[in-house]
């Protein structure tokens, strides 16, 4: 049986493009037809990315203490969320944290700092970190995410070897002022333009679940298409206690898959990354979502804990995916290394920040209600506890 979504995929594969009406129709598909959407969007994914998954690793260089008021953010001005708060990591700690992610299977390190935007001294730090990282790890891809850029800063990052710059538009222009008032949508677009002009690969995405309409989600995706973002992180709101979005639950696993599929139809050849909120919102559909998306973060997020890195890698392998840039043999060996590390943790007490000695990922022991609340990150960058990588 050929579905309307197959016909849409045929049209796109023949050089056509999804319309806004197509995109809204994807979002409004009944859950009973979800697999028709996945099958059709999966054809586009396989056409452009085969069975590869790009694995990225976040290093939060500076956490909390932000003067901006993004309502969704646990690090924002006024947020009471008890997240880790620290100023800039040293170069050595950055190298250590990034190295953990790279040894864990990531090929791209995303260096992020809270704040409105970097000072020129902050750029000095990131330039130094990038040089050290590139020297220590041949072939590593570096993405910087430092906020709004001023003139000349993107050029300095590019000259230092930074490959990409992330600055999310987060939501539709028509919804932007409802979620933040200390900067404008135009400010965000301006920074993406500066990054592009300097030759950095533009990475920009969105957060779903902020009270936006279907049409606004589609508006945001078409804006990202227009901006020609090379990678598009799709976040699902993690409603941290102590933020204005506390207790806001608008998403279901099927809804999240449809949002990712919509992104695939609109931007068929772009990296669609399942970003924050993956475990909490997709739940048992995480692997299904990877049949339309082609990129994830390994391990933890900026201020919250993700599922165990081993669970991420096993999910990829169980579903027939391989890590982009790694052959199957190396991938198998990587999983065995992770299993050995996990076994050693069990033998010595699990080391999970839950402290219950369960040996598993935070959330796997029943000590957290991971699916209902973000689990605040208490390991990796800014702590003395080993990273989840
Ligand atoms: S999203 Fe960035 S700019 Fe906004 S409050 Fe959070 S750290 Fe600050």
UniProtKB/TrEMBL annotation:
<feature type="binding site">
    <location>
        <position position="203"/>
    </location>
    <ligand>
        <name>[2Fe-2S] cluster</name>
    </ligand>
</feature>
<dbReference type="Pfam" id="PF04055">
    <property type="entry name" value="Radical_SAM"/>
</dbReference>
<dbReference type="GO" id="GO:0051539">
    <property type="term" value="F:4 iron, 4 sulfur cluster binding"/>
</dbReference>
<feature type="binding site">
    <location>
        <position position="273"/>
    </location>
    <ligand>
        <name>[2Fe-2S] cluster</name>
    </ligand>
</feature>
<dbReference type="GO" id="GO:0004076">
    <property type="term" value="F:biotin synthase activity"/>
</dbReference>
<feature type="binding site">
    <location>
        <position position="70"/>
    </location>
    <ligand>
        <name>[4Fe-4S] cluster</name>
    </ligand>
</feature>
<dbReference type="GO" id="GO:0009102">
    <property type="term" value="P:biotin biosynthetic process"/>
</dbReference>
<keyword id="KW-0808">Transferase</keyword>
<dbReference type="InterPro" id="IPR010722">
    <property type="entry name" value="BATS_dom"/>
</dbReference>
<feature type="binding site">
    <location>
        <position position="66"/>
    </location>
    <ligand>
        <name>[4Fe-4S] cluster</name>
    </ligand>
</feature>
<feature type="binding site">
    <location>
        <position position="73"/>
    </location>
    <ligand>
        <name>[4Fe-4S] cluster</name>
    </ligand>
</feature>
<keyword id="KW-0001">2Fe-2S</keyword>
<feature type="binding site">
    <location>
        <position position="143"/>
    </location>
    <ligand>
        <name>[2Fe-2S] cluster</name>
    </ligand>
</feature>
<keyword id="KW-0411">Iron-sulfur</keyword>
<dbReference type="Pfam" id="PF06968">
    <property type="entry name" value="BATS"/>
</dbReference>
<dbReference type="GO" id="GO:0005506">
    <property type="term" value="F:iron ion binding"/>
</dbReference>
<dbReference type="InterPro" id="IPR002684">
    <property type="entry name" value="Biotin_synth/BioAB"/>
</dbReference>
<keyword id="KW-0949">S-adenosyl-L-methionine</keyword>
<keyword id="KW-0479">Metal-binding</keyword>
<comment type="pathway">
    <text>Cofactor biosynthesis; biotin biosynthesis; biotin from 7,8-diaminononanoate: step 2/2.</text>
</comment>
<dbReference type="InterPro" id="IPR024177">
    <property type="entry name" value="Biotin_synthase"/>
</dbReference>
<comment type="similarity">
    <text>Belongs to the radical SAM superfamily. Biotin synthase family.</text>
</comment>
<dbReference type="GO" id="GO:0051537">
    <property type="term" value="F:2 iron, 2 sulfur cluster binding"/>
</dbReference>
<comment type="function">
    <text>Catalyzes the conversion of dethiobiotin (DTB) to biotin by the insertion of a sulfur atom into dethiobiotin via a radical-based mechanism.</text>
</comment>
<comment type="subunit">
    <text>Homodimer.</text>
</comment>
<dbReference type="InterPro" id="IPR006638">
    <property type="entry name" value="Elp3/MiaA/NifB-like_rSAM"/>
</dbReference>
<feature type="domain" description="Radical SAM core">
    <location>
        <begin position="51"/>
        <end position="275"/>
    </location>
</feature>
<keyword id="KW-0408">Iron</keyword>
<feature type="binding site">
    <location>
        <position position="110"/>
    </location>
    <ligand>
        <name>[2Fe-2S] cluster</name>
    </ligand>
</feature>
<keyword id="KW-0093">Biotin biosynthesis</keyword>
<dbReference type="InterPro" id="IPR007197">
    <property type="entry name" value="rSAM"/>
</dbReference>
<dbReference type="InterPro" id="IPR058240">
    <property type="entry name" value="rSAM_sf"/>
</dbReference>
<dbReference type="InterPro" id="IPR013785">
    <property type="entry name" value="Aldolase_TIM"/>
</dbReference>
<keyword id="KW-0004">4Fe-4S</keyword>
<protein>
    <recommendedName>
        <fullName>Biotin synthase</fullName>
        <ecNumber>2.8.1.6</ecNumber>
    </recommendedName>
</protein>
